[in-house]
Design brief:
Length: 314
């Protein structure tokens, strides 16, 4: 079970900034020295040969500069005080998966038919304001995203980077090990309670989800179970794929994340992300089409009247 973003004392999410990536300068080659067999040609000492070579290099350099002067003359220099626009450092590359647009998925979940018996909080101390909504094909909620770094320890998810790190996840891989939050996109569902029970909606470990943030879609699986009254959590890999800061201490985002979990969609093995993407794309296409994909009554089929007797269709 993940613990969500936990900024250290006195540090807020907005104050914790990722340092810009620095460019690595290509290393310059070592000064070449003539082989031993060339150091004493014509009776000259090594020092004299070196001085002559330096002199030749200088003459060639001056010649090239002089020859290039007419080409450089027409160049217009920038005005005094003018500066080149500075490009901001590129942010993390977001993972774009599938061919279903985020806007189409969001349009499909614009309305909410409540399937939970109440509302969830996004964090401890926050008011309960998030319902779980549902359709025939899926359940969904619109919340924040806290970072789950539990499971297999790695470079970015371990007891040092996450003070509340747990080596356990609710569901395990096919080899019996817990999930790898750094590499596997997965989401966290609330523990079953009187508020809502995901199992009643044919959702469990390995069920496929489409996680939407801004214009990005990340397919994931249900991989962990969280507190019974808090919602809005996903693995390090899910956040990274969406371009959300994936830091278990102060990462995540306060709002704007939509979790859509498809019913009857388990992926086996649970760690097969390619299978999750394939299943997610297929179900997302059906989901956005909505009623267009449902069977319709052919024209001319008798329809029941208010008294229960069929009448010819028009």
């Amino acid at each position: 079970m993940g613990s969500g973003p936990r900024p250290p004392s006195g540090v807020t999410r907005t104050q914790r900034r990722r340092f810009p990536r620095t460019l690595e300068r290509a290393p310059s080659g070592p000064l070449s020295v003539a082989p031993r067999s060339d150091r004493h040609q014509g009776g000259l000492s090594a020092r004299q040969i070196l001085q002559e070579r330096v002199h030749i290099v200088r003459v060639q350099t001056l010649t090239l500069v002089a020859a290039g002067a007419p080409l450089l003359a027409p160049t217009t220099l920038p005005a005094a005080g003018a500066t080149e626009p500075v490009r901001p450092p590129a942010g993390p590359a977001a993972l774009r998966e599938g061919d279903v647009a985020a806007a189409d998925l969001l349009a499909r979940v614009r309305d909410c038919a409540h399937v939970s018996r109440g509302r969830y909080r996004t964090d401890d101390g926050e008011p309960a304001s998030i319902p779980v909504c549902g359709t025939k094909e899926a359940v969904y909620w619109k919340a924040d995203m806290d970072i789950d770094c539990d499971g297999q320890a790695g470079v970015r998810c371990n007891a040092r980077t996450d003070p509340l790190f747990s080596a356990m996840t609710a569901y395990q891989q096919s080899d019996g090990r817990c999930l790898d939050a750094e590499r596997l996109p997965y989401i966290v569902v609330p523990a079953a309670s009187a508020l809502w029970n995901h199992r009643d909606h044919r959702i469990g470990g390995g069920s496929v989800a489409a996680v939407v943030y801004r214009d990005r879609v990340q397919y994931a699986v249900v991989g962990d179970v969280g507190p019974h009254d808090i919602i809005g959590e996903a693995s390090y890999a899910t956040a990274k794929g969406l371009g959300i800061r994936a830091d278990p201490r102060g990462g995540g985002t306060d709002t704007g994340v939509t979790h859509i979990v498809f019913k009857d969609s388990p992926v086996r093995p649970i760690e097969d992300h390619a299978a999750a993407v394939e299943t997610g794309q297929r179900l997302a296409r059906l989901f956005v089409r909505g009623a267009a994909e449902r069977p319709t009554t052919p024209k001319g089929t008798p329809r029941p009247t208010s008294k229960g007797t069929p009448r010819p269709g028009s």
